[in-house]
Design brief:
Strand order of the largest sheet: 1-2-3-4-5
Number of helices: 6
Number of domains: 1
Largest sheet: 5 strands, mixed
Structural class: alpha+beta
Radius of gyration: 15 Å
CATH topology: Aminopeptidase
Strand content: 25-35%
CATH superfamily: Gcn5-related N-acetyltransferase (GNAT)
């Protein structure tokens, strides 16, 4: 059975392990002991902004994570939207329904928060991830762009 909960700071090593368990993450994340302080600082800042780090657990282990934030704004008549980032599932458990269950959990939280839309970005070369999100009802509605600062 898959269960869900919000992360606490003590969960960061498990989260960073998931973020690094990825062909792109292995070069940009620092999965070591002790974790670089930036992870804790970023986690605390996210919480102060009302963000959540949602975890999926199975067999007593953290096997999936995602960052969830609600963005309030003026456009679309003041409609709030949920933003999802850093969706990861343990590589040994991919394809077993963990990711879909975690995303549905986040979508339920967004509905409860009054959001009218959930949005995310994924790299253009992550075709498997794009197919996964499409199965959950996400569409290619916008072209995303980023600038390194």
């Amino acid at each position: 059975m898959i269960t869900f909960r919000d992360a606490i700071e003590a969960d960061l090593p498990a989260v960073v392990r998931l973020l690094a368990d990825d062909r792109f993450g292995r070069d940009r994340e620092r999965d070591r002991t002790p974790l670089p302080e930036g992870y804790s600082q970023g986690f605390r800042a996210m919480l102060l902004q009302g963000g959540r780090l949602m975890l999926a657990e199975q067999d007593g282990m953290v096997v999936g994570c995602l960052q969830y934030n609600v963005i309030h704004g003026v456009s679309q008549q003041g409609q709030s939207r949920a933003q999802v980032e850093g969706v990861r599932v343990d590589s040994a458990r991919r394809g077993g329904g963990v990711g879909a269950a975690l995303m549905r959990h986040a979508m339920d939280a967004a509905r409860t928060a009054g959001c009218g839309v959930m949005q995310l970005t994924t790299r253009s070369d992550r075709t498997e991830a794009q197919a996964f999100y499409a199965r959950l009802g996400f569409t290619h509605s916008h072209a995303g762009m980023k600038a390194s600062l």
